[in-house]
Fold each of these.
Amino acid sequence: MWRFSPRLIRSSRWTSTFARPESSTTRALPSLSVLLSSHKSHHQQDESHKLLVSFLGMAMASCGIILGWNTRQPCLEEAADDDTTTKILNWSGTHSVLVPNDSYWEPESIAEVEAIVQKCHAQGRSVRPVGSALSPNGLAFEAQGMMSMAHLDSVVKVDTVNRTVTAQAGARVSQVIEALRPHNLTLPNLASIAEQQMGGFVQVGAHGTGKAIAPVDHYVTKLKIVTPSQGMIELTSQDEDDELFHLTKVGLGCLGIVVEVTMQCIPAHDLVEHTFVLTRQQAREQRDELLEKHKHMRYMWIPFEDAVVVVTNDPEETLPQSVPRQTSAPLSTKQLFQPLTDLLLTLSQEYADNSTTTTTTYTKETIEGMGFGELRDALLAFDPLNVDHVKRVNKAEAEFWRNSEGYQTKPSDQLLQFDCGGQQWVWEVCFPTGSQERNNGNDMDFMEELLAGIERDNIPAPAPIEQRWSASSSSYMSPAYSRDPQGLHSWVGIIHYLPSDEEWQRRAITESFTGKYCDLMRKIGQQYSATSHWAKLEIPKSIFQVADLRLFMQSRFPVALFNETRARMDPKSILSNRTVDMAFGKPGHRQ
């Protein structure tokens, strides 16, 4: 019922097998200002102002008219009524792009990719690669030209001796897992959504959770990419120029179009999942023990509630028989959802006579069969920006999770990939929190400050705020990159759902999230050198924020090397877009 794939529309007909039906009132929503500025001294502020002057013109050209940014992008439906354009909408419903059909390619072979890239390079035409369009920020979108990788979806080879799998970039993660299953193998790490394509899975630095588990890009052993200037090249960690390999693993699609990925595998295994609820103090006190004891562990913090949902996963064969494999007497679905359904019926009655709202009226019959995500959306839709209302919803959700405490055992892919909710704004950051040997406490301090700020400022923050952990990545552009291979990193994601198709409500939610909520996390993140997940980095509303972002990027990533490599591989910048140029500048330009 909840499926998160891109929606592609060519006029009124569907162009992709993984598309979902489009509402007749689909809207393009405003850009999200969720960018991190550095914590600046007076000297740094002076440098920021100098930098601002130096690239003001370039930034305005590459990022659109940022000063006085129009917070509502134009509606695209009218222009999409003919047969000349393709419209793509990302899974979270927050970004869309309209591409001329003669600049939207769907190659079916690597040879076709090479031919298209060669032609576009000769003509200086944009050709930005796109996978499943899962990135909440529409990172792959470029109105001047795009290439869908969906038809390059073959699993090329499973090497059981070396435990590797080679797949084309458009192969979905779920496809690769199924191809590995007969060989008793699986991928070493999984993000939450199975419909990701392998190219995007790697290029944006997707991650799961686990103290000793790096983001997925770390496990890549070979890449085959098509570049504008050098044609097709293969990169491995054994290359003389392994620097290029480690830079390209998280290349954001702008060093070359990834057409094949080879990744390490591990033996397939069942996981025993344990879900339980702790208090905030218990979560802080038990964090080290839980991270050390469990292969996978994540926290889901519930604002305004002294409740932290803990989900751990461990290979079944590593656990003693005393650990339950299945909850012996689980609650029925009706009992499980009762805190949510009771509140939904109560709210439906309370709002029934309120002529200022257009909410749906629910009955016991109409809510039957609704899942968790649907119930939460329905609850929030009544008044999503009323902090007292959100508190009631969060309280019911905390009770739902207490009802859900218990164990289950399934194949690893069925537990590590889960429902992320419906249309939503989301921002996730990553920051170092010590080493494998010693957590320095940044992770818990960050969460304590974030929750205190939410509750102090009465921000209508729905649940959950998800916190995950990872080891360091060897990829230079990964948010979790560290020179210390024993590093430990925490990832924290805030969210605001878009539970209704009402345009006024969606606009109000967007303004609330991009304003007060993200401003709070940005301010806190400055102290911890927190950097955005690449799929959640948005174009800012202010040229001053662009200047701050550029300074931060230079302090956190090898921007000069990245830009020099972009200039070498893609001298005409046909693989880029304004988000990439906004963050790093144009290829070849030292920022």
Note: Residues 1 and 318 are 34 Å apart (CA to CA).
Amino acid sequence: RCVADFQLSIASVTEDNSSGCLSQDLNLQAQKLAEKLKCDAVVSGISAGPGTVNFTINRELLAKAVLQQVLKEGSEYGVKSELFSTVPRQKAVIEYSSPNIAKKFHMGHLRSTIVGNFIANLKVALGHEVIRINYLGDWGMQFGLLGVGFQRFGSKEKLKSSPLQHLFEVYVQINKAAEDEHVKELAKDFFRKLEEHDEQTLSLWKQFRDLSIEEYIRVYKRLGVHFDEYSGESFYQETSQEVLKMLEDKGLLQKTKKGTGVVDLSEKKDLSSFSTVMRSDGTSLYITRQVVDLAAAIERMNKHQCDTMIYVTDKSQNNHFEHLFHILKLMGYDWAERCQHVSFGLVQGMKTRRGEVVFLEDVLNEVRARVLENMASAKTTKQVEDPVETAEKVGLAALIVQDFRGLLSSDYQFSWDRALQSRGDTGVFLQYTHARLWSLAQMHGSEQLTDCNVACLQEPDAVSVLQHLLRF
């Protein structure tokens, strides 16, 4: 369906734009204004809509202007516009993905990975400098448990051949064994040695971390994702103590009756809103993730001197980041205003044929297998050089486009049938269309066009494509 190229909302220009202005009054004003305006060589049609004046551009001029610009700018079309040329170039630090080490890449981290990567790619395309950071969950009492578990159930051979799968199996076993208080004490002792930088303990933990990153890089390669820095909670254990000292020196750290350390975030300073920065188990005090994240933010800003810091996580962490930015402001860091949390809803209902999916690679392998099946059964599928690689790319597009279809903040129900449809707003159809266009380009040679005949581009479908190109 052909729509107007541009619309003017009467409510945005009328002197009386109060909410009491009746819609029929706006419609009447739109009608009167449309009748007064005249067409010219550029504008071929003016009409009134519901509270709007619609402008249609001369079709031949529209086609020429858009296509000449496309030919002139090539792959940079859309990012060399006058609008973007006035945007100041900035430096952005973007933290996304952030899985927990010694665990296989969980499906829950997929959204953070592809949304964060999308934001980073957009900023790079617009000329901004981007630092991509993967902030790993690589510290905490769970590594005491895993260390003891590996000492009991671990195998160096299995760790080498399938590190994350083996560590996952070990973690399941030691969790069952941890019902025994003696095992819990051993785990605490292991983590204490880790904090004290015991050489043997630290060496095992480092092996877990290095093997995890190697596995993650392999999975990220399948997703077309890369990072400039692999950071982690372990990097900021010492500076976290400095942050606690700063909070204390500024009078922001308060102790509760239970010995817990908190920062009061309430306006009336009555602890009606607070953030916990130290916890007690009755015998020892432990810093919380909030302090570690404060230390990480401060160190990143000192290191990169960036214009903005963006954190990409699911919406369950909204409260955490609201508190994080608030505390930074209380500490006197004005740049906290330039920190942003991009949150998203959760993916629900994602199952493979074997049942509930836990790991991302299960999903990637499943979608590749399903696309291969569809390719084999489709009569229109042409012979391709590498069917598996083709299915991998089409399957990945299916996952990403399904993820981006709805509102970012909303949870959504994953559907294999919807994701793999070959028609509609799907990744499969997107890849099919790209392949078809590439085939047409090859069919007509690689000679660079210098001019084009636009007489054949007047039908509604062609005009709709031109309008989309113009908006891009």
Note: The chain has a mean pLDDT of 89.
Amino acid sequence: MDASEVLEESLQNMSIQDAETQVMNEQEINDLMNSVIDWGDSEGVSNEEIEADDSEDEDYVPRICIRLGGALQAPPCIDNLPVIDASETVHDIPDVEPPSVTLPTLQQPGFPDTLEVMTEDDLIGKRASITYEDCLRQLATLLVLPVQKCPYTCDVSKMECQCRPPFEVSITRRGTASIMEWTCLVGHTVWRWSSQPTLRYGMLAGDFMLASNILLSGSNYAKVSLLFQFMNMGMVDRSSFFTIQDTYGVDTVKEFWEERRAEAINRLKDRDVVIVADGIMDSPGHCAQYCTYTAMENESREIISVITVDKRETGRNSVIMEREAFVRTVDTLLNEVKLVEVCTDAHVQISALMNKGKYKDLGLQHSLDMWHGAKNLAKRIHAASQVKGQSSLSSWLKDIVNHFWWCCKTADSYQEFLLTRHMLYTRKTSKTYGYIPELQAMILQKRLAGKGMPRRRTLRPDDPRRYGPLPPVPAPTIEELLHTQVRRGLVSTFQTKDL
């Protein structure tokens, strides 16, 4: 067979194959009925992967694949399939014209912002409650957060966290508040919720109000802290309490008191004023450090003077503190109102001032409180009845005191005493404390208008600590302390010459 015959035969075979392949279509090739399982070829596989395959390994899995069109009699040929260029690849998707009206974008609901106190009305008068952590945890388990996944995004890689609910809930204590925090499985914070609003610079409103109200109610930080400890509740820190008290509380209370006192003095300027005054020590006996002397106007029952005397102002002599406070009170009121009568207890030093001392020529009438007189008389009669042979006085004690009481009411100076007589029969009314919200608002307003709490506390001009140390003797030196050993209540002094 010459070359021309061989060429003609090959062309005929190609025409027959083309005729057979032209009959095939895309559906026949993609039909799973015409597919077979075949060994994968090594085309596109690197030599390292081929060498790594070990057919003798127990876990060896040969490369197999599904070959479409493998069950057909004639091998599939895709050369005759229509060619699709890049410009025709998306022609099967219908064109969508942009809408003429802009549709609103759907925003994913977010978390509410932390409540902040901007004005005093945001906090004063708001109700508060004691909440247990178990109840908060029960509420948190039923709460569905308005997010589908963790909102954390890495600042470096800009990758988003893919953790989805449920998130872990933890409750921590910060001061008097409870902080609930939701975290994903990776540890990212999804949301943090506080049981209290915050003031400027991050201070919790509950801590600030608790510290302020301890001062306004006349309570003691140590006792309130112990109460909170017994109830297993969070408490404002001790240093924070005293910083709030010194920075915002004390000066505000003084300003409020001076303003109210000035209003009361203005109402009493054109009247004859009778005051009822008495002092109280911070502790009984001769170890008292402070004496507060209070004067009340008899008719209106308004407090018009409050004087506090420190022991260091009287030469560390607590016996004369009440006398010193009385002198300051009377001297101040004599310059402000028309004082005509002073009613006190039977204090020897005060009686000496009124009868023989500083105020004897001023025309002030000094009256003694009937209650203190009756009480002292009862004490003296009871002490006398304890003497041998005087026990019969105890049966007369009540009658004698009542007779003294009746004599005071029916004395010749009854008209002058009439101003104070009603106090013995007036029923005690409960206090309303209507001024407390105003004081709270003033303290909070000063905190909101300030620049935060100072890092260091400074002594006020009238701070008692400026008077010097309380003990009259100087503090021992370090050398003296080193030579004195106190152990189990016994003091033993070491002699240096014996060492």
Note: The radius of gyration is 48 Å.
Amino acid sequence: MYAQEKVADEPLVLLAYNCKIVGESSQGEAVDEAMDSHALDMYKILMEADKLRLDILKCMIDILTPLQAVELLVALKKLPLCLHEWSKRRDIQMGITKLLNTQISSTSGPPEPEP
């Protein structure tokens, strides 16, 4: 278990274990304090991860030619958009959207007709 997980998880697990009824909390202040601590730890981890990603990107751009750097930035922007579109189409093909009872519009074309 990572130190970050241990710091946040132990108090939350103990508080959850002591609850007799789901949703009941006689220790509201302790829960709030544990959640605040957990949120702060998560924020710090995310900030460190973002800094690391930015540092790596800067190093990569320094190595590449200007044209290669532009192509990399375009590809980095395009990849999550393409994955999102692909996953929406896949969900529709597998019928998952019907299970979730959601209407997902796609920017890649009109929605598929219902059978």
Note: The chain has four helices and no strands.
